[in-house]
Amino acid sequence: MRGVAGRIALAVLLLVAGSVIAGPFLAPWDPAASVGVPYDLPSAAHLLGTDRLGRDVLSRLLHGGWRLMLITAAALGLAYAVGFPAGLVAGLRRAVDGWVMRPVDVLVVVPWFLLLAVLATVAGRGAPALVAAGALTALPWVVKVVRGATVEEASAGYVEAAEARAEPLWRVAVHEVAPNVAPVVVADAGMRLTATLSVVTAGGYLGLGLPPNTPDWALEIAANQGGLTVQPWAVLGPASMIVLLVVSVNLVADSSPVRRAAQRPARPAGPRVTGGPDALVAELLTVHDEDGNELLRGVDLAVGPGRGLAVVGSSGSGKSTLVRAVVGALAPGLRTGGRVRMSAVPGRRTVGWVPQDPALGLSAGMRIGTQIRDVLRAHGQPVTRATVSATLRGVGLPDDPTFARRYPYQLSGGQQQRVMVALALIGDPGLLVLDEPTTGLDPGAAERIVDLIRQRRTRGTALLIVTHDLEPVRHLVDDVLTVDDGRACRRPPTALEMRPVAGNTNRPGLPLLRARGLAAAYGRQPVLDGVDLDIGVGECLGLIGNSGAGKSTVARCLVGLHRPLSGTISLAGEALAPHASGRTPAQRGAIQYVFQNPARSLNPRRTVAEELAAPIRTFGTAVTPGDLLDRVGLSTGLLHRRTDQLSGGQQQRVALARALGTGPTLLICDEIVSSLDPANRRAILDLLRTQLDAGGPAVLFISHDREAVDTLTDSVLVMTGGRPVSGVSPEGSADARESFISVSDCTTDDPVGADRFGAAPPTGLPRSPSDARCRG
């Protein structure tokens, strides 16, 4: 318990609870006996006076709390016992959602006093009626809070990874989701306790609960209110105990570590909004963790209006920590020192912020259009269908109402990134802070975003950009701040050199996985139509195309996380069910998905050892968590660290190690190197290359990284508009050109490709190190 207020509240709560528990043994008089004159004022014999029947007020006060507390606890416990699992199931299973939430909506609109009166009439007055009324009043809100928090977590990569590896629903709910929604539930618990206590107290006051003359705080208030002006302590005594109980519980809940973890982290010492000449100034900026370790060491920086500063460095060097400290978005437990100042421009938003992981910046339970409207409203912009459409159109996204009604999980990673950029640009901010703004975007979409940001810069917007690759943003920056081990130094920009990874060799073989005629949609919006693909044993197939072309949806259909509308999928000649829930555990373990966003693909409340033990336990593979870390080039010293304490590169390797823990025959890697610095990017690609060379699982490699696809893959499938390129060269398709690749010099009579795709492959583009290699 931290803070003076928290300690005082805890002391008061313990005092009230102690009086409730020990009160009956400390009472000086029999609470039912008349021992004096009615409404006698306080005296040495009766410290709080007497009530309307001459009974000792203090004795009835000491006897009157345990029933109220017990009934309230029973009602709230019943509400959570039913509401918590109901909310989890409703959030995890959309098919059940309506069946759970419609009765909940009915309970919300029923007045509690009417509910209590009906229960008292049907079941009779007494404690059971109060327990039932309190539980039914709290139940719908418990379900709503748990369901809302669960929906936020359900689209996280670690939840989908658990479902894909055949974890049963109860284990996903209990081990993956429940620990992450618990802080939100605890944060709401104080309010639920207050509301339930009010219902129980009011029921007693109205005479619908315990029998008359029972020592009870609520009954004492109701029975003695007529003598309030004669002997006020007969009413003020029990009323004060109820107030102290409610206030102390709420203050203790507010200051508890679990609730603080659920709240948005406080801003650092600043940023202070001033009218200075620079858009952003940071002086001696430091960041420490809870153990006192220094993560950022005395960083100074300044960015003037219309200027751009790039922040570069290796994974784990402190780049994202720096920009999060600037905007006040540090994780709980981190504290800052130094000063941050931002310049306010009249009529403009002060700062727009795009985090590295768009899935963390978007609310999973809200439609895209709703989130845009909320930000428009917050910054005083017109909130109309036209402004929402213009916001989407400005970042190259569809501007039709159907797209605006999608949820974030129905968008590709690149589309989520563009939505985040669109939200950051609302209100014409004077400063844009962008953490890997082009990550996950194809070159065409990245260029459009860069052009849009460059236009803002010409109007005086300052830019602070974290990037592992200066090339896409070279026209946006004037200086480079290099961060290494929490320290920073400033220099002019220079070209970044990136070494190619090891070369590629072809692997002839029969198809391991075959898909034919795949079609899929989100709601009524089609996203795939007529997709065919083959992946051979030990082969690496590249899947490329514009952001939103359907690449990730193909991957999710193959792994069983998205149910296709039509089409067939077979593994080693064996037909697979459309959804993972209908596949055998062995089939689920054979196809593993490595997600695009490493931070969301690992459970933040688990250690590395716990995360890696899950697939080993489920599939009984003959490896240990240490073995898996060794396979991906990480030290076993990380086993006891929580996954949210790892750098992005370490998180990506742990996610890959977890996928290898099932002993898969096919790995689906979705943009797994897009957010990594050059060194970690090379390490991950070399690791995949080593796995392929050693006879490891085949790979479906989704990427916009031309060099990675060019050096790692054996063949390439180009997606455009939800369809594979068929019958035309990708050079003839703007979408394919923007995905980076040109295949005009590819031959299609390669014998390996002929065996795999036929003499004239319509969708696969076979490549070999020799004359079948794609160039340009």
Task: Reconstruct the topology from this structure.
Layout: H1 4-26, H2 57-63, H3 66-92, H4 94-109, H5 112-123, H6 127-154, H7 157-164, H8 169-205, H9 217-224, H10 233-255, H11 257-262, E1 272-274, E2 280-288, E3 294-303, E4 308-312, H12 319-327, E5 335-343, E6 351-354, H13 358-361, H14 368-378, H15 385-394, H16 401-404, H17 413-425, E7 431-435, H18 443-458, E8 462-466, E9 479-484, E10 487-491, E11 511-522, E12 525-536, E13 540-545, H19 551-559, E14 566-571, E15 574-575, H20 585-590, E16 591-594, H21 598-601, H22 608-619, H23 625-631, H24 648-660, E17 666-670, H25 678-693, E18 698-702, H26 706-712, E19 715-720, E20 723-724, H27 734-738, H28 751-757, E21 764-766
Parallel strand pairs: 1-5, 4-8, 4-9, 6-7, 7-8, 13-18, 13-19, 16-17, 17-18
Antiparallel strand pairs: 2-3, 2-5, 9-10, 11-12, 11-14, 14-15, 19-20, 19-21
Helix pairs in contact: 1-2, 1-10, 3-4, 3-6, 3-8, 4-6, 5-6, 6-8, 7-8, 8-9, 8-10, 9-10, 22-24, 23-24
